[in-house]
Amino acid sequence: MAGQQLKALVADDERDLRDSLRSKLERFGIAVDEASDGAEAWKMISESSYDLVLLDVRMPEIDGLEVLERIKDAQLTTTVAVVTAHANVGDAVKAIQDGAFDYIEKPIDPVKLEKLIQKAIDARNLVEKIAMSRPSEAHADDPLDRFVGQSKPMSKVYDLIRRLAHVNTSVLIRGENGTGKELVAQAIHFNSPRKDKAFVAVNCGAIPSELIESEFFGHEKGAFTGAVQRKIGKFQHASGGTLFLDEIGDLPLPMQVKLLRALQEQKITPVGSNREFQVDVRIIAATNQNLETMMSTGKFRSDLYYRLNVMPVYLPPLRDRKEDIPALVDHFVAKFNQKHDRQVKGVTREGLEKIAQYEWPGNIRELENAIEHAFIFEQKDELHFSSFPEPIQDSVLDSEEGWSMGPHIERPQMKAGMPLDYKEYKDEFEKNFIIEALKTYNGRINMTCEKANIPKNTLLRKIRKYKINPKDYES
Q1: Which residues, including other chains, have CB under 8 Å from residue 284's CB and lie 6 or more apart?
Q2: CA-based nearest residue to 68, from 31, 92, 95
Q3: Which range has highest mean pLDDT (46-50, 371-375, 386-390)?
Q4: How far apart are CA 13 and CA 57, in angstroms?
Q5: Rounded Cα gap, residues 210 and 468, in angstroms
Q6: Dihedral angle at the C-alpha atoms of 445, 447, 452, 454, nearest 10 degrees?
């Protein structure tokens, strides 16, 4: 770590912990600032630049998860690690799923802190290398090697990407959240003649409407309140390269008009300026919304739609390419072995069979988060299904168990006032049934399982879920 002057922010409401972390970080030659609550932390982050933020999850004013969300929304490259007590490791899981780099438990272990700092440095260097330079030689000839899976639906996508890389037309990528739309955009760019120029990604849904024009086209000093200096917009940053407009369906109508003009004329005018600037930008847009429906309701311009939709790419959801799940699992296991300094062999055969039954509404992103969740909770060298998030376990186990009522229990009936929502009614039904079964068999777990025909692991899981105490029904 010699020679690198890093800047870190320690945000925690415990002064002693802040002092301790400052002392440890300064031993590694890191400049340290401190914040005593979430509001102060966010103010400092928004006004300065930090390489590393150590963020306590539970703080006054604004909690750590809210600060993390703001960092993510602002698209800052700051590396965030959360600090949490051992009893609150669930907070760390949530933070990692929301974009935190890693977590460290209290009391702070100096050896683990040093590893975290080194991994943060490596990750930051990798981000900068990707952002500021051309792709590595391993990907120079065929960036499609970065994709995982050889299913028939994905093979069609790969073929289309190769075709699109050799033309300069606009592209519209369609697909559900978490299917990898930005990765497709990167593959098109880095396999095209524009690969030596910038790839600039913009999330249209993450920018306040009053700032979108400035983000796209830039502004002059004094153009509006807060414009204290001239700013170059994304179009000029991407000139000669590719501008990726994610969540294009969230773009306000007034901005859709200005975007269309920029695409047609390849010229932009910064806010507060009278000068036009020529730009050479390839547009790749993406959305998970039904733009055709939005056009019919006047929420999306048809002329912009047809300008973008010259060549659409449709990404299949994970449920339609389940044969790719084993390869994706291996990919994420390798990724998190490196990230968390582990030697996990993979997911057990039973675990693979069970996760293949799940529908994965969050697609590849949900699978990635689930694997990391299992890494955090699993202590063995294989990931068992029991270490996956509980909603996934509940969904799979409920669908495959199909447990039924024993012969001596009256079947609960639909009663007045019960919810007419399927999920709520199902939960209410299960809870009432289990209570009735435990009452019938005097709170005895094994007898309830046998007589009511409920697998024991299911009964114990439901007891925990509904916070039922079997001892309440002992006679």
Answers
A1: 170, 171, 173, 185, 188, 189, 242, 243, 244, 245
A2: 95
A3: 371-375
A4: 10
A5: 51
A6: 50
CA within 13 Å, CB half, 468? 25
- In this prediction, residues 323-351 reach a mean pLDDT of 92
Residues 22 and 52: their CA atoms lie apart, in Å, by: 12
Angle, vertex CA 116, rays to CA 110 and CA 117, nearest 5:
90
| Measured distance CA(112)–CA(60) in Å, rounded | 27
SS3 165: coil
DSSP strand pairing (218-219 vs 231-232): antiparallel
Do 7-132 and 321-392 share a fold? no
Q: Tell me which amino acid residue 260 is.
A: L
Least confident of 13-22, 221-230, 354-363, 426-435: 221-230
pLDDT at 76: 64
Residue 70 confidence class, pLDDT cut points 50, 70, 90:
confident
Spatial distance between the Cα atoms of 207 and 73, rounded to a whole number of angstroms: 8
Residue type, 168: N
Q: Count of CB atoms within 10 A of residue 13's CB? A: 16
Residue 406: per-residue pLDDT: 53
pLDDT average, residue stretch 385-403: 78
Domain definitions of the chain by residue range = 7-132, 142-316, 321-392, 422-473
Other Cβ atoms within 10 Å of 429 Cβ, number? 13
Identify the pLDDT of residue 350: 92
Q: Is the pLDDT of residue 130 over 50?
A: no
Tell how many helices (H) and how many strands (E) occur in the chain. Answer: 20, 16
What CATH code is assigned to 321-392? 1.10.8.60
**pLDDT for residue 245 is more than 90:** yes
Unique residue bearing structure tokens 């037309």: 169
Q: Stretch 262-281: mean pLDDT, rounded? A: 90
- Average pLDDT for residues 331-360, to the nearest whole number? 92
Under a CB-based contact definition with an 8 Å cutoff, are residues 241 and 194 in contact?
Answer: yes
Q: What's the fold here for domain 142-316?
A: Rossmann fold (3.40.50)
Cα gap 437→457, rounded to integer Å: 15
The more confident residue out of 5 and 114 is 114
Q: Where are the alpha helices (DSSP H) in 309-440?
A: 325-340, 349-355, 363-377, 390-401, 422-440
With 0.70 as the threshold, say if the pTM is over it.
no
Whose CA is closest to 166, among 278, 311, 316? Answer: 311
Distance, in Å, from the CA atom of 107 to the CA atom of 429, rounded to the nearest integer, reads 44
The identity of residue 412, as a single letter, is P
Mean pLDDT score of the chain:
83
CATH class of 7-132: alpha beta
